[in-house]
Amino acid sequence: MASLLPAPHPQISISIEEWLACSMNPLILCRNANSYARGPMVRRSRLRPSAPRAVVRAAIVLILSHGGSIAFAQGAPVSPDHPWHGFAEKSIQADARNLTEAKLNFDPEKTYSLPELIDVAESHNPETRVAWERARAQAAAWGVARSELYPTVAAAALAGANRTHAYLEDRFFRQTFGDFEVALNLDYTVFDFGARAGRINAAQAEVLAANFAFNDTHRNVIYRVEQSYYQFLNASGQEEAARANLSNAQAVQQASEERLNNGLATLPDVLEARSATAQAEYELQAVLGAEEIAHGNLATALGTTPPTAIRVQPLRELTIPSTIDDTVDSAIDRALAQRPDLLQRVADVQAAKAKVKEAHAAYYPSLNFTASPTAQSLYGMQQQFPWGHTLDLAGAMAFNLNWTVFDGGARKNRLAQSEANVHDAEAQVVVSRDQIANEVWNAYSDLNTALRQREAATALLEAAGRSYDAVLESYNFGLRNLLDVTAAQRTLAQARSTDVLARAQVLVALANLAFRAGDLIRPNAPRPGT
User: Fold this and answer.
1) Rounded-to-integer distance, Cα 485 and Cα 444, Å
2) Largest CA distance in the chain
3) What is the pLDDT of residues 321-363, one digit of tens each?
4) Which helix (H) or strand (E) holds 30?
5) What pLDDT does residue 51 have?
6) CA-CA distance, 493 to 83, in Å (whole number)?
7) Could you tell me if 325 and 179 are in contact, meaning their C-beta atoms sit under 8 angstroms apart?
8) pLDDT digit string (tens) for 466-511?
9) Residue 310 backbone dihedrals phi, psi, to 5 degrees
10) Residues 6+ apart with CB under 8 A from 426
């Protein structure tokens, strides 16, 4: 649609504000602000010189009420140098704000366990709804394919009148014909040598694939909740360890200051202790920041916003297993039998084979039956003669045998394409099987490593704690210097952090093994760490 604005000039560009100002007063001369000294003037009269001001204002209101779609048609950005902004942007922004869902309400006094958080995520994470709707759509497509097993019946009601003049001898006679019909049309495919069955079987297999994709979405959502949950527990445990380290540093600083006051220590010792305290405070702040990020990741996995307050069980209350009750061969066998992404690949093979059956059927004829009963009510009138009327039942039945004799190789190529798709789907299954087996193997190895690291971290924490206590006691008796104390303190801080991380890694590795083996979506599947 042509714009109400004048044609663009290579040296000027009029903004909407300038154009509105010009349109309010026809005597105003509008000039481009960027080229005021050299740009040509644009008079209001060039837009619509004869239009009254009230009409112009009404037109502006109409244009703005339609989002500028009349005078200011939406197009691509003017240039690549600057971001795009336009009238449509505000409406899209308003729609985006309206799409924001209300935050989930968590009881601030309740401590949520992992199974409870998983239930919340499966109910509110939008990814599960997307997968569910896709599965429903595919089930509807299967219903569409199955409808070919039944005849198609269409009804139509037709009415009309026709007036003409017939010439007889030396004059014209007016004739009027009218009719009213109610017609039914029945169409049914008697047989097609498996083409219809191939489409139905393909659609059914695609429904199964969509259902397995839905299950796989739940598997991924559960795994992300477990990952973010254990990462949050690790961050919370690191905060506790950092606060304990800060407390130890402050105790050492206080002891060094007391010894300085009693003449048993030097100022450099006190400064070293203060430096260690500041370092512990710095590390605590870094841990607090990581904890906030982990909390936001957990809230996002649950399907809510990061500011939502959620209380969870601390890491120290969870049971950390020390051994694996399963073998790697058993885990691989379970994965190959129940992983939904692998089952989806198998369903794709079935769908591809069904399409091969449909392609084969194209070489054979198809027989269709058609019936069209019609109830007619006809009348006619001719000038100077009485009118006539008839009511009758008419219609037709037919059998149509269709057989494509030659199509330039289209059927041959469609069959070759379908067979190639089957081979491709079968190869994808083999690739997925090998990949899944490797994923389970790696997850099992990671769990064994995490368990061994957990044992080493426990021994390290115990040794570091005893060493720190002994060094601090010796320092208080004047038998060790402050450097020994600060070194033992740093070792203890690292041991605490390592112990927390090792415990969290065991839980993460357990969740990863359950994820790779497909155990997360089994009925009554146990949750790691519960």
Assistant:
1) 40
2) 146
3) 888 888 999 999 999 999 999 999 999 999 999 999 999 999 9
4) strand 29-30
5) 45
6) 50
7) no
8) 998 998 888 888 788 888 888 898 899 999 999 999 999 999 999 9
9) -135, 125
10) 349
Q: Which of 39, 32, 225 is nearest to 125 (CA)?
A: 225
One-character DSSP codes across 98-120: HTPPPPP---TTPPBPHHHHHHH
Sign of CA dihedral 216, 219, 225, 226: negative
Alpha carbon distance 174, 192 (integer Å): 52
Q: Which helix (H) or strand (E) holds 155?
A: strand 152-168
Over the stretch 169-199, which tens digit does the pLDDT of each residue have?
Answer: 778 878 888 888 999 999 999 989 999 999 9
Sorted by sequence, the CB contacts under 8 Å of residue 202 that are 6+ apart come out as 145, 351, 352, 354, 355, 358
User: Are 518 and 334 within 8 A, CB to CB?
Assistant: yes
Q: Which of 42, 47, 59 is nearest to 4 (CA)?
A: 47
- Written as one string, the DSSP assignment of 425-475 is HHHHHHHHHHHHHHHHHHHHHHHHHHHHHHHHHHHHHHHHHHHHHHHHHHH
Backbone angles phi, psi at 333, to 5 degrees: -60, -40
Return the pLDDT at 231. 94
pLDDT-derived band at 433 (thresholds 50, 70, 90) equals: very high
| 425 φ, ψ (degrees, to nearest 5) | -65, -40
Please determine, for residue 376, whether its predicted confidence score (pLDDT) is greater than 90.
Answer: no
Can you read off the two tokens belonging to residue 415?
């069959």
**Contact call for residues 287 and 239 (beta carbons, < 8 A):** yes
- CA separation, residue 185 to residues 85, 370, 394 (Å): 55, 7, 12
**Are 334 and 517 a contacting pair, CB within 8 Å?**
yes
